[in-house]
Write a structure and sequence with these properties.
Elements (H helix, E strand, L loop, with lengths): L6 H17 L17 H15 L4 E5 L9 E7 L2 E9 L2 H17 L9 E6 L5 E5 L8 E2 L3 H15 L14 E3 L8 E3 L5 E3 L6 E3 L3 H14 L6 E2 L1 H15 L5 H11 L2 E2 L1
Helix pairs in contact: 4-5, 5-7, 6-7
Length: about 270
């Protein structure tokens, strides 16, 4: 369900995609295990019933949990006869999900020119805590990733303008900070067969120091595609990104995180 970005992994995914279409899921590598509900049974059944009230029936789903320790909750691709009928996310912080739903609804209604977003369908709270968000499914084929820096920067700039109208700015936010996606990496900037760019994962949208989305996008492109990392950035943006990367890893940075932290450490402060 998670689309890779590095060339060898992209190739492997597309080979497996064709293999599954021809021979079924038995061609997939990895251990087989029994299913365990991601929530207590009564809560899980409540979520499934509410999702079906919006999508109609679905006969299977693919569950995904992100590996970063700083990321909680899970996502599920809902399938009917192998075709996606919806994409759902659950987070134990109901306010976080409801905020994301408002943001995505506002961006979708604005009809962006340089990118699009999956159509938001509904959100709801779960008894005893947490909430879910449902949007239309991504296309049923492996997606590409934006490699062109100019295209990525155009998306970042339009995104900032549109987000400014839907994200609340509190009194503690510095006046010169701009609205930002907060995770504008290749894995969240996907390309469809039509060439359109789809931006996903809006949970970190908010305000950030100048050029934060541009710099983070360039850093993640450097670790993913081998592109040259940025050589300079505003000092407060460097500090903010360092704190962000460390917080997401909760002290267990992987190789990509370490590479980004190393690049930030030697970057010229403007």
């Amino acid at each position: 369900m998670h689309s890779p970005c590095r060339p060898l992994k992209v190739l492997a995914q597309r080979v497996l995609y064709l293999g599954v279409r021809a021979f079924g899921s038995r061609v997939l590598p990895g251990e087989r295990d029994s299913w365990e509900d991601p929530l207590p049974q009564d809560q899980w059944q409540q979520v499934l019933a509410e999702l079906r009230s919006h999508t109609g029936s679905f006969d299977s789903l693919v569950l995904y949990r992100r590996p970063q320790r700083g990321r909680t909750g899970f996502a599920a691709l809902l399938l009917r006869e192998g075709a996606g009928v919806g994409f759902a996310r659950f987070h134990p912080d109901a306010g976080r999900i409801e905020r994301e739903f408002r943001i995505v609804s506002g961006i979708h209604a604005a009809r962006p020119q340089s990118f699009d977003v999956a159509r938001p369908i509904a959100s709801g709270r779960v008894d005893e805590g947490g909430a879910w968000l449902l949007s239309e499914s991504l296309p049923n084929y492996p997606l590409g990733a934006v490699r062109d820096a100019g295209q990525r920067d155009r998306v970042a700039d339009e995104l900032a303008d549109l987000l400014a109208a839907v994200v609340d700015r509190d009194d503690a936010t510095p006046a010169h900070w701009r609205a930002a996606h907060g995770d504008l990496s290749p894995w969240n900037l996907r390309t469809l067969l039509s060439g359109a760019v789809r931006v996903i994962d809006w949970e970190d949208a908010g305000f950030a120091p100048p050029r934060a989305d541009r710099i983070y996008g360039a850093l993640t492109a450097a670790t993913t595609f081998g592109a040259p990392p940025p050589s300079s950035a505003p000092g407060e943006t460097i500090d903010w990104l360092q704190q962000l990367i460390v917080a997401r890893g909760r002290g267990t940075a992987d190789a990509a995180d370490r590479a980004m932290l190393d690049a930030l450490a030697v970057m010229t402060r403007e």
